[in-house]
User: Fold RTA1 like protein from Coemansia thaxteri.
Amino acid sequence: MGEVASDYFTYTPVRGAPETAAAVFLVVALVIAYQIVRARAARWMYILVGTAVAESVGYILRIVCINHIRLGLYIAMILFLLLPPNALALYNYKVVGEVVRRSNVRARRFWLKAKFITWFFFASDVFSFMLQSTGGSMMSHDSLQKTGKWICIVGLAIQLVFLAVFVFVAIVVHRDPQYIVACGPRQVSEAVAKRRVMWTIHVTTALLYVRSVYRLIEFADGYGGSIYKAEWAFYVFDFGAILLMFVMYIVFFLGHNFPRKTIV
Assistant:
């Protein structure tokens, strides 16, 4: 008898949900790409498009695994559903870094310099990404499950720590009137534009934090544990949290506040 999905998932995954998720993220990617092109927004905003596409690929791999499970496909699925949200953190870091850079404020502290905000948090994101990808790959092998689990936990813990530090920096930038944001359509003042941008960052970072805490608890509980087997929790705290982030990015689209023509 050949392998079945439950051999790897340790439960029988629901059908229909991954198909819906894959389609939803593909639509999200197309909508954001259209918004970026229409607004002539900064090219780094395509981070959102790439992340949505990667999420869609992850759910497509989940569909394939449900029907034709293979170890390589299962590992790829784990990585595509675990890693892309790191890019959403990078997007938020970039937004705050650009707010600081375009405001031309002489930084009183080194951690309020645009390059520091972008590259320090980018480096932490890459480090966390590498740990999570390594641990995620190892967890599908029986002999390496325990080691892989702890590597993933460390990677997620590092991400949570740096997200907390980033929240502090974002709050400082938000509250300091020296940092301004260019007005977009129907934004009557720079103060309104800044409030819109910064609250988008605060809310999406909080959602990412919830998702990362869920993933941390899931890995701590272990492969095949009660949390891992609770598929509804995955769709609520992973799919749901990430989808809400994208809804925020679409509804409160920031491309008008960061036009391409002003990039130097």
Remarks:
- The chain has one domain: 5-262.
